[in-house]
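User: My advisor, Dr. K., asked me to get a structural model of this assembly before our group meeting. I'm new to this, so sorry if the format is off. These are the inputs:
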Amino acid sequence: MAFHPRERPIWRPPMSRREALRLMAGAAAAGGLLAGCGAGSSSSSAARVIVGTRKDPAKQPLYDDNPMIDSGLEPEKGPLRVYNWADYVYQRVLKDFEKEFGVEVELTTFYNLEEATRKLRTGKVNFDVFVPTAEIIPKFVAGKLLQPLNRDYLSNLKKNVWPMLADPYYDGGSRYTVPYTVYLTGIGWRTDMVSADIAAMDNPWEAFWDPEYKGIAGLYDDYRETVGVGMYKNGITDINGDKPGDLAATRDSLVELTNLVDIRYTIDGAYAKLPEGVFGIHHAWSGDMVNAPYYMPKGGDPSVLRYVWPPKAQGRAGGYVSNDSLAVLKGAEHPVLAHMFLNYMLGDKVAIKNFSWNAYQPPINTLKPDSLVSDGMIRENLASTVIEQDDFDMGQTPQQLTPEQDKRWLDAWSRVQQGG
Amino acid sequence: MSKLADERGVVGEGRWLWPTFALPGVVWLIVLFVTPLYAILAMAMGTSDPIFGDTLPVWNPLQWNPATFGDVLGELFTGQLGVVFLRTLVYVAVATALSLLIGYPVAYYVARHTGRFRVLLLLLIIAPFWINYLMRMLAWVNLLSTDGYVNQILMFTGILDAPREWLVGKPETVILGLVYGYVPFLILPLFAALDRIDPRVIEAARDLGASPAQAFYRVTPPLSSQGMLAGCVIITLPMFGDYYTATLLSGSPKTNMISKLIEQNINASAGGNTGAVLTILLMVCVGLLMTYYLYSVARATREARS
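Assistant: The format is fine. Below is the predicted structure of the whole assembly, which you can bring to the meeting.
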């Protein structure tokens, strides 16, 4: 499925290995095509993909052959094996956990969810903790890749987490997952290259179709996100559907961008190339914009950076809002320790410490939007990157498309990528 | 040929001995070429996983579903996909021709005029390969940026009045990247071919009254044509599969090559079929070029013998 570039280390130079690695991950995925062949299907016909929506929340089904662990067990000796997005957790937080529990933590990273899913489905990897997107959880439960959580170990869930995500629409009762971070998808721009106030537009997404920004406009190279931009531009907010008319209009709008503004598709455009001045306006995840000031070249002025999440603009246009989560894998060798790790990450101090490096905001009650700015964790000119619980009612949450829908989205995207 | 082998077999001990030598090669081909190829076919004609939605290979040819093939072929001939194939072909052809123009004089110089420094020079030609390909492309991103050195030099020398936007979906930038990335691979086989030409052949041409220029173009290119062809094949194949050069140096759909579409499809769960079909189409395309290569090598060998 789509991938997020969870890649925002503050301490690395703008042009880092990460892009290179990500590209190589693409090459590896080509190899994965073959690896996938041997994997076979881990799904049985009995299991069904249950997709909960904001309007119609769902509990994920429990299966007899996939029990949860008993309460009151002692944690295993470790090592705890965490399988996470690249650069998506603060190493010091892992070190703290090691110290507190007297175990080792082994971190393995991946660059896109396809690659990770293929690996997990082989059943031949023995990770304990995984970081699925909210969108993919239904598939992972139906494919029996996750084990149900025993909430006796997760005291921090009810205590610290936003109520809406402590009992989330996609996994009612937190049967399989706890939330990790929340994000918005909006638009980042620089006031020194873009004169208009994008946030004041009725539909900020239309800015990408403004020929004035020819050569300085960029969108994410990610079909789940970017086909959505085409929909929002056309005033369509059903980002979980595939009406032929909607997709055709979306596709045509995006194809038009190729020559109209010389649009470019990137994965590092928002956090790295916008501060470098390569782009003046870019499709942007909130966490990428929180990171962007750290990528400002020497002498650059981070106060030129701006961010808008279109649902909060005047015209109340559409915008993605979603979250990532933490889960214990079914094949975990250290399930008790993994539960304790999940609970540890939901500790309010730990979550805030992790955020200080990770830049993707945890949905923690004590993390108040106002204090994020006043404490200097987020710059004032980027205060609009802060996420609140109510944002989930303003924007749209991407949900798992059916394979047929997914194919139609991808076909529209393929056409866009073929050029005008 | 086969008759000869039969006779030899009748004679005795050679019957199993000689074919045994072919075994490692045959095993290699089956394990690393035929099986993956079949896997790609099985993916192209495969079904979709009911839960994960990704493509599952179907190993039994009787159950193959050619629907995706039909869709992609339809797009190839009536839609934009044909343009992408054509674009890929043009980029690779231009880049190969440029590489040849750049590589030939270099190889010629190293093979003919460098004496004891030739090993050093060859090493220097290969030296950039000590740096990862992606790193070198990322370096070009910096060099070609609006205020990068390339623009500065071009403006200083008066060639440009204003900085040129190299990185905004320009085909020439992508072709430049391809040439830069692959030209050393062309130089090495060319060097080997040029190095093998007996200098006395050229001296003979001169003795027989050819001018220096005539002696060169009547003798050297024909005798190194196999090296040129081999070099071109060696760089053409990876260029067809190259998607990151265009991604890094452009990022615009205007310059996307076919391999970028393959990468995008394979990296999405619903795109396995399409990715596999595109892979096969690209292989057919490259296969035709290889056939021409093998054919011309065979012809040249025949001519050399007769």
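One thing worth pointing out at the meeting: The first helix of chain A runs from residue 17 to 39.

User: Perfect, thanks a lot.
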